[in-house]
């Protein structure tokens, strides 16, 4: 006989009732949540719209001018007529894309990509109305009349001297290939430094970190690679700290190097190189945040992803903390900046010296997760926008005193003669909805669109020029 256990709790019935009850609680909570989400996104939308209209109303009219869409296009020229004999002797390559045309040093339209000496920007000559104009791609002379040598560079604004310092690869040597399949290179000469008060007239401050001529075991030996130097100032130690990409000829060392100086104009003392966090590191940059914490960002895992991590307090090393970002996206040439508490980054694809499409990324925290928000290039034509105006990102400089206005600094590499690589500086602004779907932010527009505007010539707003 089965005894009924009167002490047994009637679990099944209660449980059903309970689960019915908890499902309705769950349902109502869900409805509540959805309502809250709608309300939040409505408020946020209103906020963003009012912020934007405010932005436009409050925007400096000269910034609006820089945001004009400027069209430009370059056509592949028809093949030159040649005698049948000449054509037989040396068949000419037929270019199917403008990138091939760009890379061909004997192209008929080479002067469009690399305008000649006659059009050089010379801030020291009487420029009349042309003063302070940037002409992306033209030769740019320093105050002694020599082409500026600061490739893959970055700019430091030094509060103490109220001066801008532009550091970059000094590549004024012959271009060659170390072996048949190697990328074009120039032996290391060192890091060039130029100073300016107006971001247009640049005085050559010399080589602030020089190559090592004789010691083949030295990181800075001329047959190695020194690229993308960036300098930040450490408020606590009062030192200027330079981080750079250090490699061997075949790019297998894949390390970062660190150098330090008491002065922005050097000389910098080279300290050491390492693989940060034990990983390969190629294109890189450093970013100093408002709270004084600085970060290293570098392409790693064979350029398939980027890594980001804070530096030690003295900026002379990385710490143990590191996060992987843009995993599987194969990006390099990172240039980081901050606007209204949000972090932004421009990167390029990985095609050596050949230009490719830039992408913008955004994040609430520099440590990620980073969201890819699309191609920031505006104007020119499709090919201009798909090649970052035939250049590659290296740095983004905030224009002090004009919130929301930045200068995008890029290199138009000339792989046939790297010393003749040009600078492409263009205005970068923020505003408007981003044009690529979100992965992490669940659809809330936390950040704005990043826009880099093509201009054949442009200059900073009059009210800013020369202001310290
Ligand atoms: C690029 C890189 C440059 C340089 C070049 C060498 O991808 O951004 O800094 O390393 O490759 O081929």
**The CATH C-level class name:** Mainly Beta
Question: Can you give the helix content as a percent range?
Answer: 10-25%
CATH topology category name:
Tachylectin-2, Chain A
Please give the alpha-carbon distance between the first and last residues.
98 Å
**Count of alpha/pi helices:** 6
- List the ligand species: beta-D-galactopyranose
Overall geometry: globular
Sequence of strands across the biggest β-sheet: 19-23-22-21-20
Taken as a percent bin, the fraction of beta residues is 25-35%
CATH architecture descriptor name: 5 Propeller
The description of the largest β-sheet is: 5 strands, mixed
Listing every helix as H and every strand as E from the N terminus to the C terminus, the arrangement reads HHHHHEEEEEEEEEEEEEEEEEEEHEEEE
Number of strands: 23
Radius of gyration: 27 Å
Structural class of the helix and strand makeup?
A: alpha+beta
Mean pLDDT figure: 88
Contiguous uncertain segments of 5+ residues: 1-18, 40-57
Question: Please, what is the CATH homologous superfamily?
Answer: Glycosyl hydrolase domain, family 43
């Amino acid at each position: 006989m089965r005894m009924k256990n009167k002490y047994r709790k009637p679990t099944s019935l209660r449980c059903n009732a309970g689960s019915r009850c908890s499902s309705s609680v769950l349902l109502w909570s869900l409805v509540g949540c959805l309502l809250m989400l709608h309300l939040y996104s409505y408020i946020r939308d209103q906020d963003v719209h009012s912020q934007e209209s405010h932005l436009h109303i409050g925007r400096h009219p000269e910034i609006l001018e820089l945001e004009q869409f400027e069209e430009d296009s370059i056509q592949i020229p028809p093949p030159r007529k040649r005698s049948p004999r000449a054509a037989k002797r040396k068949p000419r390559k037929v270019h199917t894309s403008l990138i091939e045309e760009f890379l061909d040093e004997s192209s008929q339209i080479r002067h469009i990509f690399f305008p000649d000496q006659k059009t050089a920007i010379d801030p020291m000559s009487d420029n009349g109305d042309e003063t302070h104009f940037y002409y992306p791609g033209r030769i740019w002379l320093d105050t002694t009349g020599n082409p500026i040598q600061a490739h893959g560079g970055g700019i430091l604004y030094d509060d103490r001297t109220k001066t801008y310092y532009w550091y970059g690869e000094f590549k004024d040597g012959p271009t060659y290939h170390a072996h048949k399949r190697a990328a074009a290179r120039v032996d290391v000469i060192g890091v060039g430094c130029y100073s300016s008060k107006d971001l247009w007239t640049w005085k050559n401050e010399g080589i602030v970190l020089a190559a090592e001529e004789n010691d083949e075991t030295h990181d800075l030996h001329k047959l190695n690679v020194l690229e993308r130097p960036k300098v930040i100032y450490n408020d606590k130690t009062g030192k200027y700290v330079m981080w750079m990409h250090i490699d061997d000829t075949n790019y297998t060392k894949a390390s970062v190097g660190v150098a330090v100086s008491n002065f922005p104009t050097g000389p910098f003392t080279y300290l050491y190189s390492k693989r940060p966090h034990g990983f390969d590191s190629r294109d890189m940059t450093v970013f100093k945040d408002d709270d004084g914490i600085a970060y290293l960002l570098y392409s790693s895992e064979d350029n398939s992803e980027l890594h980001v991590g804070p530096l030690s307090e003295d900026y002379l090393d990385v710490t143990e903390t590191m996060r992987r970002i843009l995993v599987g996206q194969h990006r390099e040439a990172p240039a980081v900046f901050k606007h209204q508490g949000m972090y932004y980054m421009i990167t390029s694809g990985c095609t050596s010296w050949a230009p490719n499409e830039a992408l913008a990324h955004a994040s609430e925290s520099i440590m990620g997760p980073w969201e890819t928000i699309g191609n920031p290039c505006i104007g020119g034509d499709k090919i201009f926008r798909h090649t970052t105006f035939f250049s590659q990102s290296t740095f983004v400089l905030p224009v002090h005193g004009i919130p929301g206005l930045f200068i995008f600094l890029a290199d138009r590499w000339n792989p046939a003669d790297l010393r003749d690589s040009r600078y492409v500086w263009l205005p970068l602004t923020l505003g408007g909805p981003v044009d690529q779907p979100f992965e992490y932010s669940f659809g809330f527009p936390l950040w704005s669109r990043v826009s880099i505007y093509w201009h054949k010539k442009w200059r900073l707003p009059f009210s800013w020029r020369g202001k310290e």
